[in-house]
Amino acid sequence: MMDKERTIPVLYLVVPCYNEEEVIEKSSRVLADKIRRLIQAGRIAAGSKVMFVNDGSKDRTLELLHRAAAQDTIFSVVSLAGNYGHQSAILAGMMMARQYADAVVTIDADLQQDIEALDKFLESYMAGCEVVYGVRNDRHSDGMFKKGSATLYYGLMHLLGSKVITNHADYRLMSKKALDALAEYKETNLFLRGLIPTMGFPSDVVYFDVKAREAGHSKYTLSKMMTLAMDGITSMSTRPLRMISALGFVVFIFSCIMSVISLVDWVQGKNVPGYTTTMIVSLLIGGITLLSLGIIGEYVGKIYMETKHRPRYIIDTVVWKENEHKEDS
Question: Which fold has domain 11-218+311-319?
Answer without folding.
Answer: Spore Coat Polysaccharide Biosynthesis Protein SpsA; Chain A (3.90.550)
